[in-house]
Design goal:
This protein is mainly α. The protein is built from 14 helices and no strands.
Amino acid sequence: MSFSDYLALTKPKIVPLLLMAALGSSVVAAKGVPPAAVLVGVILGGAAASAGALTMNSYLEMGMDAKMKRTMGRPLPSGRIVPATHALLLGILLLAMGVGVALLTINILGTFFIALGAFIYVPVYTLFLKPRTSWNIVLGGFAGSCAALAGWYAVTWSGAAAGWVLGAMVFVWTPSHFWSLAVLTEEDYSAIGIPMLPSVVGPEAASKYIVFNTILLIPVSLLLAFFLSGLGLAVYLGVAAVFGALLLWTNIKLLRSPSKANAWMAFKFSSPYLAVVLLAAMVASVLPT
């Protein structure tokens, strides 16, 4: 048992993307750097709440993780954290801290979406959707959308259409990202009876869904252009179009040959895709019109 084991419970590769969604939306809403209190609430509160929800997910899925090759080495299934309830307590504490920080620093609606994201991810997605339906990651994707909505409403309650566009972009991005990983680990999910799409329809059919989903994602991402102007508009359109095309190319490559190597490439590119497009949205919102 070590600090790194407890850190691994929080799935630290996921938290930065959620923070990018929240921060990106708050910068677009503020058309610049948000107030210090908003940054504290969105970044610290959002990070703690997200880490708490992910830690609770680690606890709730430790039995499943113990049966899959990809995850059996994680701290809980490998027995490096004993008793396992320490993970559950840590998750609850982090979530409570995150919501508490948000309540003290941002408004009630921003805090609501931080809490809602955790609620959708833990009881709705982890406990209910994931073991029951191949639509699990589609419906559960709204947990990520809540990060963008929290960032927007932490700044302002008005003109939220752009915030909802950013939330929709995260929502539509999520299946392309996780289905690519599920193609890579399809045998694991099939072995334990979790109906992730590739384990239900097979890698070839799942690859078609991934391509179709990304074809939806690209125009959704471009909708933000309606809320930008001048140089920012040009920058955002250029970045979103180029990176959307690159993401689609990795998906088409997977469709043509649904190998694990191509699934890994599609999965690994999808994370920087979202980060870069959100960063472009932030830059575009502060450039002169």
